[in-house]
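Onboarding guide, step 5: your first structure request.
Type a short instruction followed by the sequence, for example:

Predict the 3D structure of this protein.
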Amino acid sequence: MTYADPDAFAGEPSHVGRGGPEAAVEGGPASKRIVAGYGFWIFILSDMVMFSAFFAAYAVLSGATAGGPSGRQIFDITNTEWETGCLLLSSFCCGLASIAAGARRQPAFQLAMLATFVFGVVFLGLEGREFVGLARQGLGPQRSAFLSAFFTLVGCHGIHVTCGALWLLTMMAQVFAKGFRDDILRRILCFTLFWHALDIIWVAIFTIVYLIGVA
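The system replies with structure tokens like these:
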């Protein structure tokens, strides 16, 4: 019977349970692209959780009109359809901008982002006109719990669109000044995720608040 000499392995590192020598080479902190993408997805999901709470509050308070008008009496569905069309078109243009960025085509990117901005601003203008019209009729958020929930939900979405529009202008300026650097491309990707997420939330608002409200 022969025995292995323990001294023969004294200088060899053990890779058992560590994935072999290749794992040692591949280890280390994640790249900025992975960290930024992961962190932004957490932000998007936290936003979804916040809006879910607003939707739940609206569902509970939609009938609490305090003797005032309901959604059927105050919602202008035609105006809301125009808002929806503008936001969907802005999302389509945002997708075109993302494709142009991937192809490093700056003129096409700037044009698509400008169209995204214009449609977003028109959306905000239509929403602002709706809010001002309601306020002039004495139907502000203080009138009833229903209107408080309505202004909170729809207004919060409008604030997000406003922030997104400002972010969009920043992205246009950065690409114009610095080109399609890797870090700028990551920011463009995050922006497109944010803008499309706002579209998804608006479709839910249009369905739950407006369509069901006027039914």
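Each response can be followed by summary notes, for example: The first helix runs from residue 20 to 26.
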